[in-house]
Predict the 3D structure of the following.
Amino acid sequence: MTINTLSLVLHLLSAVVWVGGMFFAYMFLRPVAAMQLEPPVRLQLWVGVFKKFFPFVWLSILFLPLTGYMMIFEIWGSMGNTPLYVHIMNGLGMVMILMYLHVYFAPFKRLKEAVTKQDWPEGGRNLNIIRKMVGINTMVGLAVIIVASAGRTLI
């Protein structure tokens, strides 16, 4: 396996784990948890889910830029030779990373503190912020997948 093939595999797996995890959480877990669980249990569930999921997101935000830039320089030699769709993918990926960093260091931190203090209204406010940001990040992630897979023909 060449370094470029390994980079592509790690890049794709990282994207699938991150975007797929957000899609599952937003589209399936969130609505069922909201319908079936009272706020204290629901908030504790989400803290537990995020604690399990976020280490994989950290790996994704490490591997995605690293492998992406490795492929760019291996295939095109420089950013200046890179096609527009790759620049769009790169820019949207950076937006996703910045959104994740905000979620992790602000509302998720406050959510954990609220659950520890059993301050359910404050926990709910922060979970709602996370919900909105994950929804946006999921849409951006799906857009990145479209650009990555069809960008050569779309752009």
